Amino acid sequence: MESTFVSATILLILITDPLGNIPLFIAALKQVKPERRRLVIYRECLIAFCVLLAFMFGGQTFLKVMHLTDESLSVAGGVILFLIAIKMIFPGEGGALGSDKVSGEPFIVPIAIPLIAGPSAMATVLLMATREPDRMLEWVGALTITMLVTTVVFLFSTRLQKLLGEQAITALERLMGLVLAAISIEMLLGGIAAYIRQFG
């Protein structure tokens, strides 16, 4: 499946799922003083951005060291995205924060990692960079826009939750999950097809 700048941006926004993470984000910041929340948001989003950039630029080296192929990464990425999509469509108890109660000011965990830069986001940027390294500037641009969207959503998270309501946010998350499920199947089939072609 050939990605474009727009499709890559949409995919990353779907995976980071800022709207669906609003309730978890608000819970994580409950113990933070109101005057420090904006600073924490900027800091955590910047950390997540740097982590994903590291995975993007270190992708080729990582694959060589681990002796992995693009096809295996594509299949694994498709499986991970499908599991994330299923969780978005059929949300259960808990979430990215687990059952642990967040106390004090969060630093890196749980907002930057895994709320924003989770395993699925890391696998996706790594896959994008290794499959088409000559378009790295586009992938960095897509990631930058995704992080800007995430930052804006988190800055206005309380207002958005009041404006949309929990039911609307849940409906949007399930719709995004459905789209992500289709993308994950396409990625999975693409990886399997590429692997089979090696023996053709």
From TrEMBL:
Organism name: Crenobacter intestini
Membrane-spanning intervals of the chain: 6-29, 41-60, 72-90, 111-130, 136-156, 177-196
One Pfam family from the record: MarC
Protein's cellular compartments: Cell membrane
Keywords: Cell membrane, Membrane, Transmembrane, Transmembrane helix
Cellular component GO terms, alphabetical: plasma membrane
Name of protein: UPF0056 membrane protein
Stored InterPro entries: Multi_antbiot-R_MarC
Bilayer topology annotation: Multi-pass membrane protein
Assigned protein family: Belongs to the UPF0056 (MarC) family.
